Amino acid sequence: MPKCHMRPFSSNQNGKTVVAFNIRRKFVIPSAGIKEQCARDYFYDRTGDIDAIFNNWEGRYSSIVRKATAQSGRLSGEDRQFLRFFAYLQYLRTDAMAKQQASAFVEMADFVFDGDAEGRAWATFDPKDIPGESLGHFLKTIPYLGGLADCLILNKTGTDFITSDNPAVASNRFRTQRLKHLLGGSGTISSGYMLTLPLTPRLLYAAYDQGIYSAKLDGNNVVSTSRTADIDALNALQIIRASENVYFGAVDQSAYVVALMQAFEGCRPKAWYKWHFAVENKALGTKTYRAFSEVQTPSELRQGNGFMHIESIAVDPKKWCSIFKFRSNPHYVDTKSAAGLVRSKALLDLRKYLSDLPRPIKVPRTPKNKNTTSA
Asked: How many CB atoms lie within 10 A of CB 331?
C-alpha cells in the first residue's frame, strides 16, 4: 500500500512508524517503519511513466484526507468520486492481490498440464509487469463503478479504525446472505457490491449499491456512528482481507486487535478463488444450449471440449455494519446468466461491449515435453 495511506495511522501521527500485528506469527511489532511496510519494488514500473500517474494520485489523496479530517468528513462530490477511484485502484494494486493472481494461475497450470514444469512456466508472469497490468485493468473496468452511492463514516466511538496491507475491501453482503445458492458473482457490476477504505482512525470511505442498501446520511454524505459494533464489523473486513499484517497507531490497541483476530480468523478463507474445470456434455446439449460437467482430473479435461472458470470467494465476516440496511424493495437486473444479478442493464451492456463477461476460457494445449504423454 502507498505511504500516503499509512501515515494517518502512524504512531502519535509521526508519519514514520506504525504498530503492526503479523497474522501468521500472531505477533505485535510496536514500532514498524512505514517505509519498510510499503516497500515493493515491482509496483513501480521500468519506465517511470506509471510512477508519475500513481504519485500524482497519491498527492491528491493525501490532500483530500487532510481536508476530510479538518471538515469532519465533509467533501465535495468530486473529492468523493476520486476516493472511489483511488480505493478501486488500491484494491487492484496491492502485493496481496498480485500474490493471489500468481498463485491462481500456477494452480490452474498445475491442473491443466498435470504438474508439467513447462506448463507452470507458461502460467508464470514477471512481477515487474504488475503496474501496467493493474493500471490497464483499472482503466478498463472503472466504468463498472458507475451508479454507486458513497459516504464517509465518522467514527465517534472509543475504538479506532485499523488498516492493513490490503486495505481496500470489496464485499457483497447481498450476495453472501441472500443469494448463496443462485448463479452469479459478487464483483464490481454485481448487485450488492460495496467498496470500503479506512482513511484515518476516525474516518472510513464507503461506496455501495444504493439499489440494495440504504444509509441515513446527512446533507454532506456523512454518517456518524457511536456503535462500537459497527466499527468492529468494518475492522473485521481488514482482519479478513489482510495478507500478512494489520496496522494501527497505538500499542494499547493491541489487545483489541488480537481479540478481533481471534473472533474473525475463521472467516479468512484458505484461498480467495476456486477453479472449476469442465467438459462439454453433448448428451445434454441442444442447438441453443451447451451443458458442461465438472471434472476432477487433467485426463478427464482432455476427453472433450474442455473449459475452465475461476470463481472469486466473497468476503463474509458473518457480522455486518448496521449503517447499511437492506432496502425493502431492492432494485437489480436479473441477467439469467453467469453474470447473475447486476445493478443495471447499462452496466451489463458495457461489460458485453468490453468483452469481459464471466465465461469459460478454453484450455490451452498440453506443452510438448519428452516426459509428457500426448492426450
From this structure: 12
Closest CA to 215 of 326, 324, 329, 322: 324
Among residues 128, 131, 100, 129, the alpha carbon closest in space to that of 242 is found at 100
Sort 157 into a burial class: Cβ within 10 Å, 0-12 / 13-18 / 19+.
middle
In the beta sheet, which residues pair with residue 17?
Answer: 33
**Which pLDDT does position 275 carry in this prediction?**
74
For the beta carbon of residue 373, count every other beta carbon within 10 angstroms: 8
What's this model's pTM, rounded to 2 decimal places?
Answer: 0.82
How far apart CA 339 and CA 359 sit, in angstroms, is 9
Alpha carbon distance 65, 83 (integer Å): 9
Distances (CA, A) of 183 to 166, 178, 213, 274: 28, 12, 21, 15
Q: Are 198 and 162 in contact (CB under 8 A)?
A: yes
CA 320 to CA 252: how far, in whole Å? 25
Cα separation, 364 vs 126, whole angstroms = 20
Write out the three cell numbers for 83: 476516493
Contact 10, 34 (CB under 8 A): yes
pLDDT digits (tens, 9 = 90+) for 310-358: 677 888 999 999 999 999 999 998 887 767 888 987 777 777 665 544 4
